[in-house]
Amino acid sequence: MKDPKYGTMKKKVIFYDSDKRYADLKIRLEHDGLSQPKFFRGLLTGYLSRDPDILNYIDKLKSASRVSKKRIKEDRELIKKGEEKLDTFSLGSGEIESIFDILEKENPNL
After folding, report:
1. Cα–Cα distance for residue pair 68/65, rounded to 1 Å
2. How many domains does the chain have?
3. Which residue of 16, 52, 74, 75 is surrounded by the most CB atoms within 10 Å?
4. Which helix (H) or strand (E) holds 92?
5. Is 9 among the domain residues?
6. Which residues contact 69 (CB under 8 A, 6 or more apart)?
7. What does the pLDDT look like over 40-89, one tens digit per residue?
8. Is residue 10 one of the residues assigned to a domain?
9. Is this structure's pTM higher than 0.70?
10. Degrees to nearest 5, angle at CA 109 with 108 and 110
11. Could you give the CA distance from residue 76 to residue 45 in angstroms, rounded to a whole number?
């Protein structure tokens, strides 16, 4: 039996918080006209795509978690270098996905 293609399976992300914060979240989402899934998927997309606005907030979270400023700066520099490499090689997400498809065809056991 063949495994489903990577990236097509649904996964549930769960975490717990207080009832007060949950109620506040629901009120804010209603006020802003957002559903809970749209909100969390939007944040996740911004985080994974390294949206600068989201990353600025993540840096604040890191600072609050006592991650050193040096480490935060190094992380930002690595992200910048990675983006420059993608630009240099003109690799968009479609091209990167194609590369993984080609590699998978050549090495089906991976």
Report:
1. 9
2. 1
3. 75
4. none
5. no
6. 63
7. 999 999 999 989 999 989 988 887 777 777 887 788 788 788 877 777 77
8. no
9. no
10. 95
11. 18
79's CB contacts (< 8 A; 6+ apart) are 50, 55
**Does residue 80 lie within any of the structural domains?**
yes
Token pair of 69, please?
Answer: 């400023």
Contact 77, 70 (CB under 8 A): no
Q: Find the DSSP H helices in 1-110.
A: 19-32, 36-48, 52-64, 69-88, 93-106
Q: Which of 40, 34, 45 is nearest to 15 (CA)?
A: 40
Domain around 83: 68-110
Amino acid identity at 62:
K
> Distance between CA atoms of 37 and 54, rounded to whole angstroms?
17
- Residue 77 has a pLDDT of 84
Residues 61, 68 contacting (CB under 8 angstroms): no
